[in-house]
Amino acid sequence: MTEQPRSTDDRISETEATELMRSLLHKEGNWVNWGQKCQKLQKAGYDSQLIFEQTGFQNAQQNLIIVAAQVFESLIKSGADEDLLSYYIGPRSDVLYELRILNQEQRLGAAKLAAEKRIEVAEAHDIAKAIQDFSRLSQIPSEFTRHPGDAIAYQCWKRGKQKRDLAERAKLIAKGLKFAHSDSARQAIESLLQDFTVTPTRSAPLLPVHRLQDEDELARIIPLVGRFPVTVTDIKHTESLSVEEPFRLVTVGDKQTIVPLPGWQAILKAIDPVAILWPSDQLPRSIATRSEEVLLVIDRVLAEWDVNNYYLVERDNSVSLQWFDSSPDVTILGELILILRAKNILDENNITEPWQMDD
Q: Taking a C-beta distance cutoff of 8 angstroms, is the pair 300, 235 a contact?
């Protein structure tokens, strides 16, 4: 076995780890003990796959009993009696696992209800969700209380009012009566037997989900050195930006100016790019009939001369962009990646105003 402790507090000896593995292999104790031992091994840095190979506890099973054991411990902290704890040691780890989404107080109430009604895992999932949703209501209907049984009854009452199908409506009424705790909640459920008015169902709108598909959609943020003329110091002292994938998050300094550029291949491949605002009439070759401000992207890492590229160089204490037909004897500050011209907009107002068409 290979030990990879995550922290000093979680570190265990090889001997202790071997003993834990042996105990799990022979399934000593109950599922709560197993979950605690699996968690101790995982926190000490042992991979769940290695634990499976040594003990036979599959990865999904490890996760279930670890989480269920944590829920069990929260029941103890909430003052659960011995009968309730014994019921869940039963084993009913799968039921407690479904209660993980609830807070400590809600777990105790839900656990008592599930034990009282002898709830199995499939229904436990629905119960936990109903209690969680009920707790989020800013104001509950006067017929219902905060008791977990009333929380489930409320969900049945609400859904029952939306059903036209009498068979489905009857199932919800029966379920609501099974769990209703207060007399007022029971009366609200029973009222559905006489009142067949259907409340329209309001479905939640679709989430506005988009997935990035093309590299062009992955913008790259590049630090801006400044506006021409710039100095060698400006070039060298502009801080590089670190990018955090997959959404290309960038953290910038207080006074740092940045510019977003499309995710073109040349931009994404750049190792240490910086941008400089530059007048087009100061370029080595003409690109326009009239002068305009363009954006140079320079990769500072690429400082080796190549006849096919342009370079930002230091000459006579100034910075210029040049091409060389042979290896130069000047300091190369970086290679030109691309020159970006501003979008040519004939009428900027057309962007924000609705289209107008002649009849």
A: yes
Supply the pTM of this predicted model.
Answer: 0.58
> What confidence score (pLDDT) does residue 281 get?
87
Taking 50 as the pLDDT cut, the residues of the chain under it are: 3, 5-7, 357, 359
Structure tokens at 20: 């834990």
175, 187 Cβ separation under 8 angstroms: no
- Lookup: tokens for 310: 């342009």
Interhelix angle 31-43/59-77, rounded to 10 degrees, is: 110
Is residue 202 within 8 Å of 234, Cβ to Cβ?
no
Q: Which residue has the tokens 């509950």?
A: 140
For residue 165, what pLDDT is reported? Answer: 82
User: Under a CB-based contact definition with an 8 Å cutoff, are residues 219 and 267 in contact?
Assistant: no
Phi/psi zone of residue 42: left (φ > 0), alpha (ψ -120 to 50 degrees), beta? Answer: alpha
Q: Please give the structure tokens belonging to residue 221.
A: 């943020």
Residue-range domains of the chain with CATH: 144-198 (no CATH), 215-340 (2.10.109)
Whether the CB-CB separation of 14 and 1 falls below 8 Å is answered with yes
* Joined tokens for residue 99: 């209660």
| Phi-psi group of 78: left, alpha or beta (phi > 0 → left; psi -120 to 50 → alpha; rest → beta) | alpha
Is residue 321 classed as helix, strand or coil in its secondary structure?
strand
Per the CB < 8 A criterion, the answer to whether 84 and 75 are in contact is yes
